[in-house]
Amino acid sequence: MNIVVNGNLIDVPQACTVVQLLGQLEIDNRHVAIELNREILPHEDHPSRCLAENDDLEIVTFVGGG
User: Fold this and answer.
1) pLDDT bucket at 65, cuts 50 / 70 / 90
2) CATH code of the region 2-61
3) What pLDDT, in 10s, does the model give residues 41-53?
4) 41 Cβ neighbours under 8 A, 6+ residues apart
5) What are the boundaries of each domain within the chain?
6) Of the candidates 51, 50, 48, 64, which has an alpha carbon nearest to the alpha carbon of residue 5?
7) What does pTM read for this prediction?
8) Cβ–Cβ contacts within 10 Å for residue 19, how many?
């Protein structure tokens, strides 16, 4: 199935959860904020939220530094 992640069309398996997507993209789930279809997705919903065809995600990773 096709979804859009940060403006790029990608193919993911059916019934893919947000956590599975992050694993596929090699992004640490602990340091991200996700907007799904223009609404912030609470962090506690990442493991259970299944993606659907044409979902639009914006993934922002937090980077520390000094």
Assistant:
1) low
2) 3.10.20.30
3) 999 999 999 999 9
4) 18, 34, 35, 49
5) 2-61
6) 51
7) 0.88
8) 14
Dig out the tokens for 36 from the structure: 């799904």
Q: Which residues contact 29 (CB under 8 A, 6 or more apart)?
A: 19, 22, 23, 46
Q: How far does the chain reach from its first CA to its final CA, in angstroms?
A: 40
DSSP, collapsed to helix, strand or coil, labels residue 40 as strand
* E-assigned strand segments in the chain: 2-5, 8-11, 32-36, 39-41, 56-61
**Distance, C-alpha 63 to centroid of its chain:** 17
Per-residue model confidence as pLDDT tens digits over 7-16: 999 999 999 9
CA distance 66 to 59: 23
State both tokens at 44: 């506690």
